[in-house]
Inverse folding.
């Protein structure tokens, strides 16, 4: 039977040296076994025992056999535990997992992805003993990339060699786009979530919470090891056309608000503005591309929504008064103001220019 936790964990009930792997699951009965297998099969790299771990799978109100898959897995391996909740989205499902987990360190895995061999060992080995720490590693990415309209197969690393950062430096790196805006391929001290919780802004809950976690961390460790396989699927949340996609712009405006609290750092504010413009431009180009591929999309309604969410007055002002705003982003901003069709044309031209440049 699934459990529904009624209490909030406190420091005293976390088990030291236990790793909690939290997997939110919604109607993924066909994909979940691969994710579970990738965790239960974790082994240490060499020379020492793997630290104990539990797998907390949160069934987010699934209507398929997701819960049955988890129950079968828990019979085979007692480290697997089912927690059930009404459907609320991946962010709220992760909050439920955080309330139910018992470890003092947390790793998040999406139900349609998988941990690579040795991932937990590599993350745990890099984790500082002090509470309030984060370790961020590399990941692979494969599958259909909707925004670029192509199949991707790449390895992404946050650094070439290990780096230890304070929260201020880590936050600047994040705003500049040098730290991934995802919670997987990372390990977190459970204590970071005492006062921070996921907000349901699917499909961008990761990008919303990451800057808040980094600002609250005592230590942020970046390692080059690749620990996670992110698999893009056509028809997944990140590939769909819905009102929730406007959350990408709202999340970046939240990041800009955080960046603007840093006094005497105008370049950091400018980076936050670039994030808002880039998100609005990317969404405008994506919507038009979807229409070209046959999806029924009301372009003019989306144009109004994008401009309203991004802020027409702000974008217009940034175009003319921000001395650190690159010419490319001034063009992106103008494209957002002119509409999704213009953004799509600019995006196509930019992609073609990058292709020509890279082929030389």
């Amino acid at each position: 039977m699934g459990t529904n936790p009624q209490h909030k964990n406190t420091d005293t009930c976390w088990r030291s040296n236990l790793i909690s792997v939290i997997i939110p699951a919604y109607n993924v009965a066909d994909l979940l076994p691969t994710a579970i297998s990738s965790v239960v099969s974790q082994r240490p790299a060499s020379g020492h025992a793997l630290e104990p771990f539990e797998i907390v799978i949160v069934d987010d109100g699934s209507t398929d056999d997701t819960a049955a898959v988890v129950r079968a897995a828990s019979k085979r391996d007692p480290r697997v535990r089912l927690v059930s909740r009404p459907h609320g989205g991946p962010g709220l499902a992760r909050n439920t997992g955080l309330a139910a987990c018992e470890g003092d360190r947390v790793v998040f895995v999406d139900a349609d992805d998988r941990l690579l061999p040795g991932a937990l060992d590599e993350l745990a080995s890099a984790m500082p003993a002090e509470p309030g720490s984060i370790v961020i590693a590399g990941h692979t990415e494969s599958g259909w990339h909707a925004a670029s309209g192509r199949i991707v197969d790449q390895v992404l690393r946050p650094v070439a060699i290990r780096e230890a950062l304070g929260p201020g430096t880590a936050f600047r790196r994040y705003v500049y786009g040098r730290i991934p805006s995802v919670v997987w391929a990372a390990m977190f001290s459970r204590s970071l979530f005492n006062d921070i919780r996921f907000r349901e802004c699917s499909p961008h809950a990761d990008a919303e919470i990451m800057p808040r976690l980094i600002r609250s961390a005592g230590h942020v460790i970046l390692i080059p090891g690749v620990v996670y396989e992110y698999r893009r699927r056509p028809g997944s949340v990140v590939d769909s056309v819905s009102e929730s996609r406007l959350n990408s712009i709202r999340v970046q405006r939240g990041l800009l608000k955080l960046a603007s609290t840093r006094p005497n750092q105008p370049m950091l504010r400018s980076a936050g503005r670039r994030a808002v413009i880039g998100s609005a431009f990317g969404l405008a180009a994506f919507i038009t591309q979807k229409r070209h591929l046959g999806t029924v999309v009301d372009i003019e309604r989306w144009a109004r929504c994008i401009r309203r969410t991004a802020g027409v007055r702000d974008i217009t002002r940034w175009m003319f008064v921000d001395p650190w705003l690159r010419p490319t982003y001034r063009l992106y901003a103008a494209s957002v103001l002119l509409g999704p069709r213009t953004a799509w044309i600019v995006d196509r031209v930019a992609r073609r220019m990058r292709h020509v440049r890279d082929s030389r």
